[in-house]
Amino acid sequence: MLKPGILLLAAGQARRFGADKLMAKLTDGQPVIAHTLKNLQWLAQKYGLELSVVVRHDNHPLMQFLQAKHISFTICPDAIQGMGNSIAHGIRSHQHWHGWFIALADMPLVTQDTLEKIFLQAQQTPDNIVRPIVEIEGNKQPGHPVYFPRNMGFELNKLAGDQGAKKIIAQHPDMLKWVSTEDQHILTDIDTEKELQNINRINSD
Q1: By CB distance 3.0 to 4.6 Å, which of 31, 44, 75, 132 could disulfide with 49?
Q2: Are 56 and 80 in contact (CB under 8 A)?
C-alpha cells in the first residue's frame, strides 16, 4: 500500500473570528482542533498513516495542546502570508509521503465515513486528485479534505499567498476524481463566532 500522509492546516490568522478559533471550546469542553483531529487520527491509526499539523510560529496555545497530545506538528515561518505558504511548507516538510491528504483545522464535523471514502479512492487512483462532493438542493458543491498525489508536489510547493490549492485543481480537471457523499459537513467550517454557535447546536442535537 502506498502511504500518503495527512496534512492538517492550522496556521491561519482567524481574523474574522477575532480570536484563536481552533482553541475555542465546543459544548463538551474540548477545543475545535480536538474535534477536527479525532476523526483524522482515527483514519491515520486505521491505515498506518502519518499525520502532521501546520501551525503558526506564534500560536503557542495550539502548539502546547499538540505537544500534550503527542501530535506531530511543523511550524510555518511565513504562514501570515496566506494558506498557499502553509501548504507549500507542509509539502516541503513531508516530501517523503506518497501523496498528501490536505485537511482544514476549522472543519471539525467531517465524518469518518467521508474521510475513509476519500482515502480509499486515493488508494485506487493514487495519481489523481481526489475531492469530496455533495449535492444540496440540486447543486453539486465540492468540499474538503482533498487528496493530492505525489506528482503534484512540485506545483504545491510553489504555492504562496491566500489562494490555496484551488487554482491547481482548476488547472487539472483531467486528474480530478470526485467522491460523492451525503455529508454536508465537507462544507462546514468556522470563520465566525456565529458559525461556532451553529456547530455547538449541531453537536447538541
Answers
A1: 44
A2: yes
Of 64, 43, 63, nearest to 53 (Cα)?
Answer: 63
Beta strand 5-10 with 51-56 is parallel
**Hey, what domains does the chain have and what are their CATH numbers?**
5-204 (3.90.550.10)
- Find the length of the chain: 205
pTM for the model: 0.93
Mean pLDDT over 14-27 rounds to 76
Parallel/antiparallel/unpaired status of strands 100-104 and 5-10: parallel
Which three-class secondary structure state does DSSP give residue 139? Answer: strand
Helix (H) or strand (E) holding 119: helix 112-124
Cell of 161: 499567498
DSSP state of 180: E
Q: Which three cell numbers stand for residue 24?
A: 475555542
Cβ 40 vs Cβ 104: under 8 Å: no
Mean pLDDT, the chain, integer = 92
Instruction: Return the pLDDT at 17.
Output: 61
What letter would DSSP give residue 148? E
